[in-house]
Amino acid sequence: MATLAKLIGAKQPRFRTATEYVESTLKEAILTGALPGGTPLRQEDLAAEFGLSRMPIREALRQLEAQALVDFYPHRGAVVTEISAAEGADNYAIRAALEPAALRLSVPQLTPEDLKRAREIVDEMDAEDGQSRLGELNRRFHMTLYSRAGRPRLLTLVDQHLAAADRYLRFHLAAMGRNHLSQEEHRGMIDACSAHDADEACAILSQHIETAAQNLQAFFAPRQE
Amino acid sequence: MATLAKLIGAKQPRFRTATEYVESTLKEAILTGALPGGTPLRQEDLAAEFGLSRMPIREALRQLEAQALVDFYPHRGAVVTEISAAEGADNYAIRAALEPAALRLSVPQLTPEDLKRAREIVDEMDAEDGQSRLGELNRRFHMTLYSRAGRPRLLTLVDQHLAAADRYLRFHLAAMGRNHLSQEEHRGMIDACSAHDADEACAILSQHIETAAQNLQAFFAPRQE
DNA sequence: TATTTGTCGATTGGATCCAATTTGAGTATA
DNA sequence: TATACTCAAATTGGATCCAATCGACAAATA
């Protein structure tokens, strides 16, 4: 099947199966807002779009369902999950619980190279103002600090919910008045990690997430949801 | 019509699709240990077992993969995830982060009826010594206390990881020396919730989970993992 | 007119068929 | 003997086909 080879690319097969490719592509489209909440995802259309049959689409949609990115209605199809104040609060509550836990486990194991990379990412964010790119850098920054936690499943969950938060990024950025995420807090976390001060790093992180959650609530507050 | 069905007492189909049925059945089999870690899950065999084609099996396996209950190896098949000290520690780390957060949100909203039900479940656990039933009661007890958190996605995650912890229940029970989970802690949590003392309730809960985690590590310690 | 019933198009759920990949046994070769 | 290679069996990944279900709209009934 030539289509698969084309999709995968010859050198480094980023995706082992078409299903993985579809899942990854759809996920990114949802997270960046290219597919907004409420968009119906018709299997037939997606299959045509991807040049595949409906089967890999179905499996990919199932995976996205497990990540709470699409809703399934039997015999009626899948729909991109709506974003709302409630969904956002849910996401932030999960992050507020998981991320400090991951950071606390990771701090004692962080290497100077990890911290150097984190610094580079933060610097890069200073110069960046594209929302989608900012979201990715932010994600990479956070995951770098958590990366030594030694709990793969925990990190997977954190990564998923960090990614899901991208859907709310524009509210956060709008509230911050400019295209900058709280860089002082990012740098403060790096400093605390360098000093092996997990308590301080977690305190900043909790505040960091709390601010984002409040910005979201403030945005939704006027229009009752 | 739904009302009529309810009046008549007609059993509404618990599963809307075959995929849901397969997923639920396999999940329970894995969690209770009927399908131990490492068991290969051949689609053909399962299809014959369920009297279905391979397709609903495949979709169900995908869902289980997203819950970290099976591992997928492209073109080689799915295998029940191995339990290990590392996997268990991962699970407990996630629970230790999520459950206090859920409890804290829930405590102010808990009703006297919720607490009454929690008490009844704990009492029922006193008389029970079947492991699988104990696991289910334990799960229901915890979820009852968290149920008013008002964060559906958070509760879903908690429920999933509480369920996954059933795979480690026998280690915990063995360490406790008898078929009783820490009932004093369970009752202490109820009392703290009754007094709307979220801090105390969370403190007991954290200790509760920590104990379980340590019991697991102690079990795996002799045999280096 | 309001409510129920019937029919039909759209869409997904499930079955069957074909292709691609992995693995390991067996063989040839240095 | 060790290593590389070939090839076939087992198994899954993907495509195509058919059936079941849902929703909407029209027709019938009170």
Automatic annotation (TrEMBL), chains A, B:
The keyword Transcription applies. CDD domains: WHTH_GntR. InterPro entries: GntR_C, TF_FadR/GntR_C, Tscrpt_reg_HTH_GntR, WH-like_DNA-bd_sf, WH_DNA-bd_sf. Keywords: DNA-binding, Transcription, Transcription regulation. Residues 16-83 form the HTH gntR-type domain. This is GntR family transcriptional regulator. It comes from Dongia sedimenti.
